[in-house]
């Protein structure tokens, strides 16, 4: 048994299996299982409103993990994630509402279709970098939304489409609690898959492309292959998030996937931490709940300063921008780094070294 009064002096592994484990220490694995258990029983004690917010946070986290695979781990900038969410949402809507297919077929198909579209728009990544690649993904945002808005016969045009909640036999995921559990399972699978992919050759190639693409190419890594593969894998999870969001809100329309959504997802991975799976989750919770906190603050101030509250009610974008700037200045590695610093502090406490 570990002595709680003795400071850790490091980690000792006797085989590669221990060294390659996601959670290398027993007590860390116990914390993860306890945390999963807490989130599993959380809906039993929370109100529908709180559960709904948690569901939105989880769906945003799935999409943010997908974007982080591309931007945080592979270093390829994308500001078209809003449109890729739309591809996932509309694909699932068309398959379920128009073709009558099951959600359980439509959701993975939405991910696959979005992955194909993302791979096509990722083809210019061999020739383009940085700002130029960002403009190319912005073009994807514009083109996809144009097609969605104008193809009335398939997508319903600007009116959008109405969806239904998923079903298993006679059971419908209509309640907030049931849909939360659906989201929770998909989020856990997404996080585990992403954590594992970066222990593989493909994940290490992604990171090599991000850190120094010329050196990676010299070592034999096919830049074009892995850049396009990053777009494909990233877009798959974004498409899954789009399908989940569409069936949760039960509506898809072009204005739900605007450039503002793309900026919000960039804010999620910047605030949460680039290149961090759990940072994507932290950032999704922070950015999703930020408007709720601001709205509550404005409502509290409306009784005291009615004129001031009317001005502040439209300040969400300003606050988003300010939050991103502050994180880039004071903690570029985001909430994931802040949490790591807190853990390191208590690991060494009461010592300062």
From TrEMBL:
Transmembrane segments: 28-45, 51-70, 77-95, 101-123, 130-151, 179-198, 228-250, 310-330
Keyword Cell membrane: yes
One term of GO molecular function: branched-chain amino acid transmembrane transporter activity
Compartment list: Cell membrane
Taxonomic superkingdom: Bacteria
Any one cellular-component term (Gene Ontology): plasma membrane
UniProt KW keywords: Cell membrane, Membrane, Transmembrane, Transmembrane helix
UniProt membrane topology term: Multi-pass membrane protein
Main location: membrane
Pfam family membership, one: BPD_transp_2
Protein name: Inner-membrane translocator
Organism expressing this protein natively: Cytobacillus firmus DS1
